[in-house]
Amino acid sequence: MFRHKGKARRPVHNLKLAALLSFVAGIVNVAGFFSVKVLTTNVTGHFAYFADEVIKQHIENAGVFLLYILAYLSGAFVSNTLVEATQKVNPRYTDAVPVFTEIVLLTGVALLPTATIQQMAQLVAGILLFTMGLQNAMVTRISNAVVRTTHLTGLFTDLGIELSQLLFYRKPEHRKKLKASVRLRFAIISFFFLGCVAGGVGFTWLHTRILFLAIAILFTGIIYSDIRYRILLLKKNLSENKAGPPLRR
Predict the structure, then answer these.
(1) Where are the domains of the chain?
(2) What is the pLDDT of residues 201-226, one digit of tens each?
(3) Among 14, 87, 128, 226, which residue is least crowded by beta carbons within 10 Å?
(4) pLDDT tens-place string over residues 95-121
(5) Alpha carbon of 206 to those of 33, 40, 109, 125: distances in Å?
(6) Are the C-beta atoms of residues 79 and 133 closer than 8 Å to each other?
Protein backbone atom coordinates (compact mmCIF):
# COMPACT_ATOMS: atom_id res chain seq x y z
CA MET A 1 0.00 0.00 0.00
CA PHE A 2 2.69 2.53 1.01
CA ARG A 3 5.75 0.68 -0.31
CA HIS A 4 4.70 -0.32 -3.85
CA LYS A 5 6.13 2.12 -6.37
CA GLY A 6 6.22 2.59 -10.11
CA LYS A 7 5.39 -0.46 -12.20
CA ALA A 8 4.91 -2.60 -9.09
CA ARG A 9 1.99 -0.42 -8.03
CA ARG A 10 -1.45 -1.79 -8.93
CA PRO A 11 -4.97 -0.27 -8.67
CA VAL A 12 -5.68 -2.27 -5.51
CA HIS A 13 -2.76 -0.56 -3.77
CA ASN A 14 -4.17 2.87 -4.63
CA LEU A 15 -7.64 1.75 -3.52
CA LYS A 16 -6.37 0.70 -0.07
CA LEU A 17 -4.32 3.88 0.28
CA ALA A 18 -7.25 6.05 -0.78
CA ALA A 19 -9.67 4.40 1.66
CA LEU A 20 -7.26 4.67 4.58
CA LEU A 21 -6.10 8.24 4.16
CA SER A 22 -9.45 9.65 2.99
CA PHE A 23 -11.01 8.38 6.21
CA VAL A 24 -8.23 10.10 8.17
CA ALA A 25 -8.76 13.34 6.22
CA GLY A 26 -12.49 13.22 6.94
CA ILE A 27 -11.86 12.94 10.68
CA VAL A 28 -9.34 15.79 10.65
CA ASN A 29 -11.66 17.98 8.59
CA VAL A 30 -14.57 17.68 11.03
CA ALA A 31 -12.39 17.83 14.14
CA GLY A 32 -10.81 21.04 12.88
CA PHE A 33 -14.14 22.60 11.94
CA PHE A 34 -15.88 21.72 15.20
CA SER A 35 -12.97 22.76 17.43
CA VAL A 36 -11.70 25.96 15.76
CA LYS A 37 -14.32 26.62 13.05
CA VAL A 38 -11.78 26.25 10.25
CA LEU A 39 -11.83 23.78 7.35
CA THR A 40 -8.45 22.10 7.50
CA THR A 41 -8.22 19.77 4.50
CA ASN A 42 -7.92 22.24 1.62
CA VAL A 43 -7.21 25.91 0.90
CA THR A 44 -9.77 26.76 -1.81
CA GLY A 45 -12.14 28.52 0.58
CA HIS A 46 -9.29 30.26 2.37
CA PHE A 47 -8.29 31.97 -0.88
CA ALA A 48 -11.80 33.40 -1.15
CA TYR A 49 -11.75 34.62 2.46
CA PHE A 50 -8.27 36.07 1.94
CA ALA A 51 -9.41 38.04 -1.10
CA ASP A 52 -12.53 39.22 0.72
CA GLU A 53 -10.54 40.51 3.69
CA VAL A 54 -8.04 42.26 1.41
CA ILE A 55 -10.88 44.04 -0.41
CA LYS A 56 -12.33 45.10 2.96
CA GLN A 57 -8.83 46.26 3.97
CA HIS A 58 -8.88 44.01 7.03
CA ILE A 59 -5.18 43.31 6.70
CA GLU A 60 -4.83 41.39 9.96
CA ASN A 61 -7.67 39.02 9.10
CA ALA A 62 -6.30 38.62 5.57
CA GLY A 63 -2.94 37.71 7.07
CA VAL A 64 -4.54 34.88 9.05
CA PHE A 65 -5.99 33.30 5.90
CA LEU A 66 -2.70 33.78 4.10
CA LEU A 67 -0.97 31.89 6.93
CA TYR A 68 -3.51 29.06 6.56
CA ILE A 69 -2.66 28.82 2.87
CA LEU A 70 1.06 28.86 3.58
CA ALA A 71 0.65 26.24 6.32
CA TYR A 72 -0.84 23.80 3.80
CA LEU A 73 1.86 24.66 1.25
CA SER A 74 4.55 24.18 3.90
CA GLY A 75 3.15 20.75 4.75
CA ALA A 76 3.45 19.66 1.13
CA PHE A 77 6.96 21.13 0.91
CA VAL A 78 8.15 19.41 4.11
CA SER A 79 6.57 16.11 3.07
CA ASN A 80 8.51 15.91 -0.17
CA THR A 81 11.69 17.22 1.48
CA LEU A 82 11.49 14.44 4.08
CA VAL A 83 10.95 11.87 1.34
CA GLU A 84 13.91 13.09 -0.72
CA ALA A 85 16.23 13.30 2.30
CA THR A 86 15.22 9.87 3.64
CA GLN A 87 15.64 8.36 0.17
CA LYS A 88 19.32 9.23 0.27
CA VAL A 89 19.88 7.87 3.79
CA ASN A 90 17.60 4.82 4.06
CA PRO A 91 15.05 4.24 1.24
CA ARG A 92 13.24 1.64 3.35
CA TYR A 93 11.74 4.39 5.54
CA THR A 94 10.97 6.87 2.78
CA ASP A 95 7.20 6.90 3.29
CA ALA A 96 7.21 6.09 6.99
CA VAL A 97 8.85 9.41 7.94
CA PRO A 98 6.01 11.68 6.65
CA VAL A 99 3.41 9.35 8.20
CA PHE A 100 5.06 9.43 11.61
CA THR A 101 5.47 13.21 11.32
CA GLU A 102 1.72 13.46 10.74
CA ILE A 103 1.08 11.15 13.71
CA VAL A 104 3.22 13.31 16.01
CA LEU A 105 1.45 16.53 14.98
CA LEU A 106 -2.04 15.05 15.31
CA THR A 107 -1.12 13.62 18.71
CA GLY A 108 0.01 17.05 19.86
CA VAL A 109 -3.35 18.58 18.90
CA ALA A 110 -5.35 15.69 20.39
CA LEU A 111 -3.63 16.13 23.77
CA LEU A 112 -4.32 19.85 24.05
CA PRO A 113 -6.97 20.89 26.61
CA THR A 114 -10.14 22.43 25.16
CA ALA A 115 -9.40 25.82 26.71
CA THR A 116 -5.93 25.89 25.16
CA ILE A 117 -7.35 25.02 21.74
CA GLN A 118 -9.76 27.95 21.98
CA GLN A 119 -6.95 30.31 22.99
CA MET A 120 -4.65 29.06 20.23
CA ALA A 121 -7.31 28.42 17.58
CA GLN A 122 -5.36 29.90 14.67
CA LEU A 123 -2.22 27.94 15.54
CA VAL A 124 -4.20 24.70 15.88
CA ALA A 125 -5.86 25.32 12.51
CA GLY A 126 -2.44 25.97 10.98
CA ILE A 127 -1.05 22.72 12.38
CA LEU A 128 -3.98 20.70 11.02
CA LEU A 129 -3.65 22.36 7.61
CA PHE A 130 0.07 21.57 7.68
CA THR A 131 -0.63 17.89 8.41
CA MET A 132 -3.13 17.67 5.56
CA GLY A 133 -0.67 19.29 3.15
CA LEU A 134 1.88 16.77 4.37
CA GLN A 135 -0.51 13.86 3.83
CA ASN A 136 -1.75 14.94 0.41
CA ALA A 137 1.76 15.48 -0.94
CA MET A 138 2.81 12.08 0.39
CA VAL A 139 -0.13 10.20 -1.13
CA THR A 140 0.22 12.11 -4.41
CA ARG A 141 3.84 11.02 -4.68
CA ILE A 142 3.21 7.40 -3.68
CA SER A 143 0.32 6.94 -6.12
CA ASN A 144 1.97 8.82 -9.00
CA ALA A 145 -0.64 11.61 -8.70
CA VAL A 146 -3.55 9.17 -9.04
CA VAL A 147 -4.90 9.60 -5.48
CA ARG A 148 -5.88 12.82 -3.70
CA THR A 149 -7.36 12.44 -0.23
CA THR A 150 -7.96 15.85 1.32
CA HIS A 151 -10.39 17.66 -1.00
CA LEU A 152 -13.25 16.56 -3.22
CA THR A 153 -13.80 19.27 -5.86
CA GLY A 154 -11.39 17.80 -8.38
CA LEU A 155 -12.58 14.29 -7.55
CA PHE A 156 -16.19 15.10 -8.43
CA THR A 157 -15.01 16.75 -11.66
CA ASP A 158 -12.99 13.66 -12.65
CA LEU A 159 -15.82 11.35 -11.60
CA GLY A 160 -18.33 13.23 -13.75
CA ILE A 161 -16.02 13.06 -16.77
CA GLU A 162 -15.34 9.34 -16.33
CA LEU A 163 -19.01 8.44 -15.82
CA SER A 164 -19.76 10.27 -19.07
CA GLN A 165 -16.94 8.44 -20.87
CA LEU A 166 -18.45 5.11 -19.84
CA LEU A 167 -21.39 5.95 -22.13
CA PHE A 168 -19.12 6.28 -25.16
CA TYR A 169 -16.04 4.09 -24.69
CA ARG A 170 -16.70 0.55 -25.88
CA LYS A 171 -13.29 -1.09 -26.05
CA PRO A 172 -12.85 -3.56 -23.16
CA GLU A 173 -9.43 -2.22 -22.17
CA HIS A 174 -10.76 1.35 -22.04
CA ARG A 175 -13.82 0.37 -20.00
CA LYS A 176 -11.73 -1.67 -17.58
CA LYS A 177 -9.44 1.27 -16.93
CA LEU A 178 -12.37 3.67 -16.55
CA LYS A 179 -14.21 1.39 -14.13
CA ALA A 180 -11.11 1.03 -11.98
CA SER A 181 -10.75 4.82 -11.87
CA VAL A 182 -14.46 5.30 -11.03
CA ARG A 183 -14.17 2.78 -8.18
CA LEU A 184 -11.18 4.69 -6.84
CA ARG A 185 -13.06 8.03 -6.95
CA PHE A 186 -16.06 6.50 -5.18
CA ALA A 187 -13.79 4.98 -2.54
CA ILE A 188 -12.14 8.33 -1.77
CA ILE A 189 -15.47 10.19 -1.60
CA SER A 190 -17.16 7.46 0.46
CA PHE A 191 -14.37 7.08 3.00
CA PHE A 192 -13.94 10.84 3.33
CA PHE A 193 -17.66 11.06 4.11
CA LEU A 194 -17.45 8.16 6.57
CA GLY A 195 -14.46 9.84 8.22
CA CYS A 196 -16.48 13.06 8.55
CA VAL A 197 -19.38 11.16 10.14
CA ALA A 198 -17.10 9.24 12.49
CA GLY A 199 -15.26 12.44 13.36
CA GLY A 200 -18.51 14.32 14.01
CA VAL A 201 -20.06 11.62 16.18
CA GLY A 202 -16.81 11.04 18.04
CA PHE A 203 -16.24 14.76 18.59
CA THR A 204 -19.45 15.06 20.62
CA TRP A 205 -17.97 12.63 23.18
CA LEU A 206 -14.22 12.98 22.87
CA HIS A 207 -13.67 16.48 21.46
CA THR A 208 -10.30 16.65 19.65
CA ARG A 209 -9.31 13.30 21.17
CA ILE A 210 -11.23 11.80 18.26
CA LEU A 211 -7.98 12.48 16.38
CA PHE A 212 -6.58 9.42 18.18
CA LEU A 213 -8.81 7.37 15.87
CA ALA A 214 -7.05 8.94 12.86
CA ILE A 215 -3.69 8.28 14.54
CA ALA A 216 -4.58 4.64 15.17
CA ILE A 217 -5.56 4.22 11.51
CA LEU A 218 -2.27 5.71 10.33
CA PHE A 219 -0.34 3.40 12.66
CA THR A 220 -2.32 0.40 11.44
CA GLY A 221 -1.72 1.32 7.80
CA ILE A 222 2.04 1.74 8.12
CA ILE A 223 2.46 -1.44 10.21
CA TYR A 224 0.26 -3.47 7.85
CA SER A 225 2.22 -2.17 4.86
CA ASP A 226 5.54 -3.07 6.49
CA ILE A 227 4.41 -6.59 7.50
CA ARG A 228 2.95 -7.20 4.05
CA TYR A 229 6.20 -6.05 2.45
CA ARG A 230 8.28 -8.35 4.68
CA ILE A 231 6.07 -11.36 3.85
CA LEU A 232 6.33 -10.72 0.11
CA LEU A 233 10.10 -10.27 0.40
CA LEU A 234 10.40 -13.53 2.35
CA LYS A 235 8.35 -15.39 -0.26
CA LYS A 236 10.54 -13.97 -3.01
CA ASN A 237 13.73 -15.07 -1.23
CA LEU A 238 12.34 -18.56 -0.59
CA SER A 239 11.33 -18.87 -4.22
CA GLU A 240 14.81 -17.84 -5.37
CA ASN A 241 16.46 -20.29 -2.96
CA LYS A 242 14.30 -23.16 -4.21
CA ALA A 243 15.21 -22.35 -7.79
CA GLY A 244 18.87 -22.85 -6.87
CA PRO A 245 21.94 -21.24 -8.41
CA PRO A 246 21.98 -20.69 -12.18
CA LEU A 247 23.47 -23.50 -14.28
CA ARG A 248 27.00 -22.97 -15.51
CA ARG A 249 27.88 -23.69 -19.09
Answers:
(1) 6-233
(2) 999 999 999 999 999 999 998 888 87
(3) 87
(4) 889 999 999 999 999 999 999 999 999
(5) 15, 19, 13, 18
(6) yes
